[in-house]
Amino acid sequence: EGLKRGVFINDSDGNTLIGKVWPGLTAFPDFSSPDTQEWWFNNLQRFYSQVPFNGVWIDMNEPSNFLDGSLKGCAETDLDSPPYTPGVLGGTLRSKTLCASALQKSSSHYNIHSMYGLMEAKATSSALKRILGKRPFVISRSTFPSQGLYSGHWLGDNRSQWKDLYTSIAGMLTFNLLGIPLVGADICGFGGDTTEELCVRWTQLGAFYPFTRNHNSMDQKAQDPTAFSPVARTAMKEVLLLRYSLFPFLYTLFHHAHANGHTVARPLLFEFPTDEQTYSVDKQFLLGRGLLVTPVLEAGVTSVEGYFPKGLWYDFYTGDSLVSSGEKIQLKAPLDKINLHMREETIIPLQRPNTTLWVSSGQPLHLVCALSRGGLAEGRLYWDDGETVDTYENDQYAYIRFRVEQNMMTSEVLHSHVEATYITVETVSFYGVKTEPVKVTVNSQEATFSYRTNQVLTVIDLGLNLSQNFTISWK
């Protein structure tokens, strides 16, 4: 069918270029051609009628080839052997890819080689919108600027080694800077056999990748959580459930990435540009502006050193405060814990977790407010149905601003939508309330609360509808 419709890349003689990839002898779709894009849609649609899939994972799309150029090699042209060859794999442009002189609809392969993955992602995203009538989900190995509009990315074939765990942070942060925020590495490593300790630590870090996926080569030992001891399994399960509980926070960060080009995972230097100590921090990162992640990246340790920029920080789990002058601090890190800290003046919306987002996205919210010394905090929440295309552009969303000042929290609906009516706020915790309140009121009605000696105030049993403004105050 592809030959009949002329959808493949040709060699310099105008014949279909044949290479070799996983299925064996392979022709390469020319995604620069509208005819190929339509053929791609038709075949994805045909497959969907037999196997209703949710998304598409596109691989080997650099394009990668087990041969150099093609079955017939490449013509000796200025494109295939240019006067200057950059320091590429194999020392030639054809090495493990297509001939530079290959012919595509819009140009020679030489001119658009680096855009192959982008063009495939764009064609795949467009096809999925037509087939599903919903937002597309595409993960691609090859990328090019602007691809964040069409796909996410995983960081390619890594290995089950501690150094690969460490370097994944820089990879994740780099792609966020490049406008591809949905990114992560293969958790526990792709090549080689992992160890239980490495896999636990990698799952803990990976739970905070914007794109979280455990994946390994088919000839390696199993590395899903059930392959390990009960202790390891529990540690992995807990951190994955924690990721699900952070969903409203992550979803809002992705909205800001979509609407304003922000990062989801970001280096500390983005938030603290005047603190030169942050410039070299590559073992920690922030989600948004306010959640600091400090993973363990070495074997056999139960503590980790983290850099804390000047200011007030709170242990995410307990609310214990930490005042930093801009210094490195040693943190306890047993095998079942990844250190998380909230920055002062932030509010993070959490949700009761469950095993799928289909279930957990309807659960009640828990708001965690990290107060500054002056008692201030602010946060946002974006909410929609999770699957309709262009909800932001078509005003089909809710947007809520939470603020704390002068012992009062206000929730203000800046943009209303029916989706918000399905969600309630169940509990609110305030970290850094200096004195125990004598009374807490919710919308002027007295409310049940608790206060701990570490200055954490929690108000429970609220049942407040997210679609309506509310206030919580204390005296």
Automatic annotation (TrEMBL):
Gene Ontology process terms (BP): carbohydrate metabolic process
Domain Glycoside hydrolase family 31 TIM barrel: residue ranges: 1-253
Q: Which domain of life is it from?
A: Eukaryota
User: One Pfam family for this entry, by name?
Assistant: Glyco_hydro_31_3rd
- What InterPro entries does UniProt report for this protein, alphabetically? GH, Glyco_hydro_31_AS, Glyco_hydro_31_C, Glyco_hydro_31_CS, Glyco_hydro_31_TIM, Glyco_hydro_b
Q: Does the keyword Hydrolase apply?
A: yes
Task: Give the record's family classification.
Answer: Belongs to the glycosyl hydrolase 31 family.
Q: What is the official name of this protein in its record?
A: Uncharacterized protein
Its taxonomic placement starts with:
Eukaryota, Metazoa, Chordata, Craniata, Vertebrata
**Gene from which the chain derives:** gaa2
